Protein backbone atom coordinates (compact mmCIF):
# COMPACT_ATOMS: atom_id res chain seq x y z
CA UNK A 1 0.00 0.00 0.00
CA UNK A 2 2.82 2.36 0.89
CA UNK A 3 4.57 1.59 -2.40
CA UNK A 4 1.36 2.43 -4.27
CA UNK A 5 1.03 5.77 -2.47
CA UNK A 6 4.65 6.64 -3.15
CA UNK A 7 4.21 5.76 -6.82
CA UNK A 8 1.11 7.93 -7.10
CA UNK A 9 2.92 10.81 -5.38
CA UNK A 10 5.79 10.60 -7.85
CA UNK A 11 3.40 10.53 -10.82
CA UNK A 12 1.50 13.51 -9.43
CA UNK A 13 4.73 15.44 -8.88
CA UNK A 14 5.94 14.72 -12.40
CA UNK A 15 2.56 15.75 -13.82
CA UNK A 16 2.59 19.04 -11.91
CA UNK A 17 6.17 19.67 -12.99
CA UNK A 18 5.28 19.03 -16.63
CA UNK A 19 2.27 21.34 -16.42
CA UNK A 20 4.37 24.03 -14.77
CA UNK A 21 7.09 23.68 -17.41
CA UNK A 22 4.50 23.85 -20.19
CA UNK A 23 2.91 26.94 -18.68
CA UNK A 24 6.31 28.62 -18.38
CA UNK A 25 7.14 27.72 -21.96
CA UNK A 26 3.82 29.06 -23.21
CA UNK A 27 4.26 32.21 -21.15
CA UNK A 28 7.70 32.80 -22.64
CA UNK A 29 6.49 32.25 -26.21
CA UNK A 30 3.55 34.60 -25.70
CA UNK A 31 5.70 37.30 -24.11
CA UNK A 32 5.60 40.46 -26.22
CA UNK A 33 8.83 41.31 -27.96
CA UNK A 34 10.63 44.61 -27.52
CA UNK A 35 12.13 46.83 -30.19
CA UNK A 36 14.58 49.68 -29.75
CA UNK A 37 14.12 52.75 -31.93
CA UNK A 38 16.97 55.21 -32.40
CA UNK A 39 15.41 58.55 -33.37
CA UNK A 40 16.45 62.15 -33.97
CA UNK A 41 16.03 64.43 -30.96
CA UNK A 42 13.41 66.53 -32.76
CA UNK A 43 11.12 63.48 -32.81
CA UNK A 44 11.10 62.95 -29.03
CA UNK A 45 7.54 63.83 -28.05
CA UNK A 46 5.73 62.83 -31.24
CA UNK A 47 7.40 59.41 -31.48
CA UNK A 48 6.31 58.57 -27.96
CA UNK A 49 2.73 59.39 -28.97
CA UNK A 50 3.09 57.36 -32.14
CA UNK A 51 4.37 54.37 -30.13
CA UNK A 52 1.25 54.54 -27.95
CA UNK A 53 -0.99 54.42 -31.03
CA UNK A 54 1.13 51.66 -32.57
CA UNK A 55 0.52 49.53 -29.47
CA UNK A 56 -3.23 50.07 -29.74
CA UNK A 57 -3.45 49.16 -33.42
CA UNK A 58 -1.29 46.03 -33.41
CA UNK A 59 -2.59 43.02 -31.38
CA UNK A 60 0.94 41.62 -31.01
CA UNK A 61 2.73 44.96 -30.96
CA UNK A 62 6.09 44.89 -29.16
CA UNK A 63 7.04 47.34 -26.47
CA UNK A 64 8.89 50.26 -28.07
CA UNK A 65 11.91 51.70 -26.32
CA UNK A 66 13.60 54.86 -27.60
CA UNK A 67 17.05 56.37 -27.72
CA UNK A 68 16.82 60.03 -28.76
CA UNK A 69 19.92 62.02 -29.75
CA UNK A 70 21.46 63.91 -32.63
CA UNK A 71 21.17 61.91 -35.85
CA UNK A 72 24.92 61.77 -36.47
CA UNK A 73 25.50 60.38 -32.97
CA UNK A 74 22.87 57.68 -33.49
CA UNK A 75 24.33 56.69 -36.84
CA UNK A 76 27.80 56.47 -35.30
CA UNK A 77 26.48 54.23 -32.52
CA UNK A 78 24.83 51.82 -34.97
CA UNK A 79 27.97 51.79 -37.13
CA UNK A 80 29.89 50.72 -34.03
CA UNK A 81 27.47 47.88 -33.30
CA UNK A 82 24.96 49.41 -30.87
CA UNK A 83 21.80 47.25 -30.71
CA UNK A 84 18.91 48.96 -32.48
CA UNK A 85 15.94 47.74 -34.49
CA UNK A 86 14.83 50.98 -36.17
CA UNK A 87 16.66 54.19 -37.04
CA UNK A 88 14.89 57.49 -37.86
CA UNK A 89 17.05 60.48 -38.74
CA UNK A 90 16.39 64.17 -39.37
CA UNK A 91 17.89 64.16 -42.85
CA UNK A 92 18.79 61.85 -45.72
CA UNK A 93 22.55 62.41 -45.59
CA UNK A 94 23.07 60.79 -42.20
CA UNK A 95 20.86 57.84 -43.17
CA UNK A 96 22.86 57.42 -46.40
CA UNK A 97 25.90 56.62 -44.26
CA UNK A 98 24.19 53.49 -42.91
CA UNK A 99 22.75 52.58 -46.29
CA UNK A 100 26.15 52.91 -47.94
CA UNK A 101 27.70 50.64 -45.31
CA UNK A 102 25.00 48.00 -45.92
CA UNK A 103 23.68 48.30 -42.35
CA UNK A 104 20.00 48.65 -43.27
CA UNK A 105 17.54 45.85 -43.99
CA UNK A 106 15.80 47.81 -46.76
CA UNK A 107 15.68 51.21 -48.43
CA UNK A 108 14.67 53.99 -46.00
CA UNK A 109 11.09 55.29 -46.00
CA UNK A 110 10.47 59.06 -45.92
CA UNK A 111 7.75 59.86 -43.41
CA UNK A 112 7.97 63.61 -42.63
CA UNK A 113 9.79 66.87 -43.31
CA UNK A 114 10.81 69.90 -41.28
CA UNK A 115 12.06 73.47 -41.81
CA UNK A 116 14.18 75.89 -39.82
CA UNK A 117 13.07 78.87 -37.78
CA UNK A 118 14.46 81.07 -35.05
CA UNK A 119 13.66 80.57 -31.39
CA UNK A 120 14.12 83.63 -29.18
CA UNK A 121 13.96 83.95 -25.42
CA UNK A 122 10.55 84.65 -23.93
CA UNK A 123 9.63 88.28 -24.52
CA UNK A 124 12.37 88.60 -27.17
CA UNK A 125 14.48 90.82 -24.86
CA UNK A 126 17.04 91.71 -27.54
CA UNK A 127 14.33 92.57 -30.08
CA UNK A 128 15.50 90.20 -32.80
CA UNK A 129 13.36 90.66 -35.89
CA UNK A 130 15.49 88.99 -38.55
CA UNK A 131 18.93 87.56 -39.25
CA UNK A 132 20.22 91.16 -39.53
CA UNK A 133 20.03 91.33 -35.72
CA UNK A 134 22.25 88.29 -35.13
CA UNK A 135 25.40 90.40 -34.69
CA UNK A 136 24.11 91.96 -31.49
CA UNK A 137 22.79 88.72 -29.99
CA UNK A 138 24.10 85.53 -28.41
CA UNK A 139 23.15 82.96 -31.03
CA UNK A 140 23.37 79.17 -30.64
CA UNK A 141 23.12 76.70 -33.51
CA UNK A 142 23.54 72.99 -34.13
CA UNK A 143 27.00 71.69 -34.99
CA UNK A 144 27.60 71.25 -38.75
CA UNK A 145 27.65 67.43 -38.55
CA UNK A 146 24.11 67.42 -37.13
CA UNK A 147 21.20 67.65 -39.63
CA UNK A 148 19.88 70.92 -38.20
CA UNK A 149 23.44 72.30 -38.33
CA UNK A 150 23.94 71.25 -41.94
CA UNK A 151 20.60 72.84 -42.83
CA UNK A 152 21.58 76.01 -40.95
CA UNK A 153 24.80 76.31 -42.95
CA UNK A 154 22.92 75.72 -46.18
CA UNK A 155 20.35 78.37 -45.27
CA UNK A 156 23.04 80.88 -44.28
CA UNK A 157 24.93 80.36 -47.52
CA UNK A 158 21.80 80.71 -49.65
CA UNK A 159 20.80 83.95 -47.90
CA UNK A 160 24.26 85.52 -47.54
CA UNK A 161 24.05 85.43 -43.73
CA UNK A 162 27.21 85.43 -41.62
CA UNK A 163 26.89 83.23 -38.55
CA UNK A 164 29.00 83.85 -35.44
CA UNK A 165 27.37 81.58 -32.82
CA UNK A 166 28.47 81.56 -29.20
CA UNK A 167 28.11 77.76 -29.20
CA UNK A 168 27.39 74.81 -31.49
CA UNK A 169 25.29 72.01 -29.99
CA UNK A 170 25.10 68.29 -30.79
CA UNK A 171 21.31 68.25 -31.08
CA UNK A 172 18.50 70.66 -31.77
CA UNK A 173 17.09 69.85 -28.32
CA UNK A 174 20.24 71.31 -26.76
CA UNK A 175 19.84 74.50 -28.80
CA UNK A 176 16.23 74.83 -27.71
CA UNK A 177 17.20 74.14 -24.10
CA UNK A 178 19.75 76.96 -24.01
CA UNK A 179 17.28 79.48 -25.38
CA UNK A 180 14.40 78.41 -23.15
CA UNK A 181 16.71 78.51 -20.10
CA UNK A 182 17.79 82.07 -20.91
CA UNK A 183 21.39 81.03 -21.64
CA UNK A 184 21.16 82.43 -25.18
CA UNK A 185 19.21 85.18 -26.91
CA UNK A 186 18.30 83.06 -29.91
CA UNK A 187 18.82 79.68 -31.53
CA UNK A 188 18.16 78.22 -34.96
CA UNK A 189 15.84 75.24 -34.53
CA UNK A 190 13.03 73.50 -36.41
CA UNK A 191 9.49 74.84 -36.52
CA UNK A 192 8.42 71.73 -34.61
CA UNK A 193 10.66 72.73 -31.70
CA UNK A 194 8.65 75.91 -31.19
CA UNK A 195 5.50 73.80 -30.96
CA UNK A 196 6.99 71.53 -28.27
CA UNK A 197 8.55 74.34 -26.22
CA UNK A 198 5.30 74.98 -24.28
CA UNK A 199 5.56 78.75 -24.65
CA UNK A 200 9.06 78.98 -23.17
CA UNK A 201 10.39 80.50 -26.40
CA UNK A 202 8.98 82.67 -29.16
CA UNK A 203 9.34 82.30 -32.92
CA UNK A 204 10.89 84.66 -35.44
CA UNK A 205 10.64 83.57 -39.08
CA UNK A 206 13.82 83.10 -41.09
CA UNK A 207 13.56 84.46 -44.62
CA UNK A 208 14.16 81.73 -47.17
CA UNK A 209 13.89 78.90 -44.64
CA UNK A 210 11.20 77.26 -46.75
CA UNK A 211 13.84 76.62 -49.41
CA UNK A 212 15.82 74.41 -47.01
CA UNK A 213 13.69 71.38 -46.14
CA UNK A 214 14.92 68.38 -44.17
CA UNK A 215 13.27 65.08 -45.05
CA UNK A 216 13.02 62.46 -42.31
CA UNK A 217 13.73 58.81 -43.28
CA UNK A 218 13.23 55.66 -41.20
CA UNK A 219 14.50 52.14 -41.76
CA UNK A 220 14.94 48.76 -40.12
CA UNK A 221 18.48 48.02 -39.01
CA UNK A 222 19.95 44.96 -40.71
CA UNK A 223 21.33 43.54 -37.45
CA UNK A 224 17.91 43.66 -35.77
CA UNK A 225 16.74 40.38 -34.26
CA UNK A 226 13.13 41.58 -34.49
CA UNK A 227 12.92 42.65 -38.11
CA UNK A 228 9.24 41.77 -38.55
CA UNK A 229 8.23 44.00 -35.63
CA UNK A 230 10.69 46.70 -36.69
CA UNK A 231 9.26 46.68 -40.24
CA UNK A 232 5.77 47.03 -38.78
CA UNK A 233 6.79 50.15 -36.83
CA UNK A 234 8.43 51.74 -39.90
CA UNK A 235 5.31 50.99 -41.95
CA UNK A 236 3.10 52.47 -39.21
CA UNK A 237 4.88 55.82 -39.57
CA UNK A 238 3.12 56.21 -42.92
CA UNK A 239 -0.33 55.41 -41.53
CA UNK A 240 -3.06 58.05 -41.28
CA UNK A 241 -2.84 57.89 -37.48
CA UNK A 242 0.90 58.53 -37.34
CA UNK A 243 0.77 61.18 -40.05
CA UNK A 244 -1.90 63.11 -38.17
CA UNK A 245 0.22 63.08 -35.02
CA UNK A 246 3.19 64.33 -37.04
CA UNK A 247 1.10 67.16 -38.56
CA UNK A 248 -0.21 68.12 -35.12
CA UNK A 249 3.40 68.35 -33.95
CA UNK A 250 4.25 70.75 -36.80
CA UNK A 251 5.89 68.36 -39.25
CA UNK A 252 5.05 68.55 -42.94
CA UNK A 253 4.60 65.73 -45.42
CA UNK A 254 7.71 64.07 -46.77
From TrEMBL:
UniProtKB keywords: Metal-binding, Signal
Signal peptide segment: 1-23
InterPro entries in the record: ModA, ModA/WtpA
Gene3D superfamilies, sorted: Periplasmic binding protein-like II
PROSITE patterns per UniProt: PROKAR_LIPOPROTEIN (PS51257)
A Pfam family hit: SBP_bac_11
Family to which this protein belongs: Belongs to the bacterial solute-binding protein ModA family.
Descriptive protein name: Molybdate ABC transporter substrate-binding protein
Organism this protein belongs to: Brevibacterium spongiae
Gene: modA
